[in-house]
Design brief:
Layout (H helix, E strand, L loop, with lengths): L1 H8 L19 H14 L2 H10 L6 H15 L1 H7 L2 E5 L7 H16 L8 H4 E5 H6 L4 H4 L2 E7 L7 H21 L2 E6 L3 H7 L7 H5 L8 E5 L18
Parallel strand pairs: 1-4, 1-5, 2-3, 3-4
Helix pairs in contact: 2-6, 4-5
Length: about 240
């Protein structure tokens, strides 16, 4: 059964060619990512996301365009990567499924990207990090990765001197670079777009310039998860699989 699953889904993987194992005879990353993705699918998460997108009719252009971007990610993952589209996923309450949604989108992007010759490894093409870990890191992957998720924007230790002195300029450089290179960037936050710039008190004056007014610029859109929509998986493990 497992071999059948591998041949049907990962047969186009450029690393293992559908065997499910890499050159060192270890389980290929495509199988690991596929299993994480399937846990979310079988847990009903995909259906909840699709239902969430289809029910979107709020009469607000910025919200509608955000849902359209989310739908584009779901329907055309490789095209979303080619265009370097970005999402700002936020809710006004904790625990509404922002990070889970980001995981789901990244798994879907990776499963498609693994079929291309540009794919090398999950580690080389994707960075998934809490915002504070990213800002403390000296890793260039946050600039150059094909896919970047920065989780909990605005939840850094804002009193720390290192944040004021070096981290905020670094975040500006990361966002500018990725916008210019058209690299997929997904941000999550508990703050709506209009609150982020006031939260940073002018330290990120260029944030809305990068992301566009209310995240409605050329490449970024905002998506709010909240209200009656709980997009979390209560029983399934959605931790990063590799």
């Amino acid at each position: 059964m497992e071999n059948t699953l591998k041949s049907k889904i990962v047969g186009s993987c450029c690393v293992c060619g559908g065997t499910g194992y890499d050159e060192e005879n270890s389980l290929c990353e495509c199988v690991i990512v596929l299993r994480a993705y399937n846990r979310m699918v079988h847990g009903g998460f995909k259906e909840r996301v699709i239902d969430f997108v289809n029910k979107g009719n709020y009469g607000l252009p910025e919200i509608e365009s955000g849902l359209q971007y989310l739908k584009f990610f779901l329907d055309n993952p490789l095209s979303a990567m080619d265009k370097g589209l970005g999402l700002y996923i936020y809710s006004k309450a904790k625990g509404r499924g922002k990070t889970t949604l980001a995981h789901f989108l990244v798994f879907k992007l990776l499963l498609e990207f693994m079929r291309t010759e540009n794919y090398k490894s999950v580690e080389s093409v994707c960075a998934f990090s809490h915002i504070q870990d990213c800002l403390k890191s000296k890793d260039d992957l946050f600039f150059h990765s094909n896919i970047l998720v920065l989780d909990d924007l605005g939840n850094e230790d804002r009193a720390a001197a290192w944040l004021r002195d070096s981290a905020i300029p670094k975040l500006q450089r990361i966002l500018h670079y990725r916008r210019d290179k058209r690299l997929v960037t997904i941000l999550t936050s508990n703050y709506p777009p209009e609150r982020i710039t006031s939260l940073y008190k002018g330290e990120l004056d260029s944030l809305l310039e990068i992301l566009g007014p209310h995240m409605g610029g050329e490449l970024f859109r905002a998506v709010e998860v909240g209200g009656g929509e709980d997009l979390r998986l209560r029983e399934e493990n959605t931790e990063w699989p590799v």
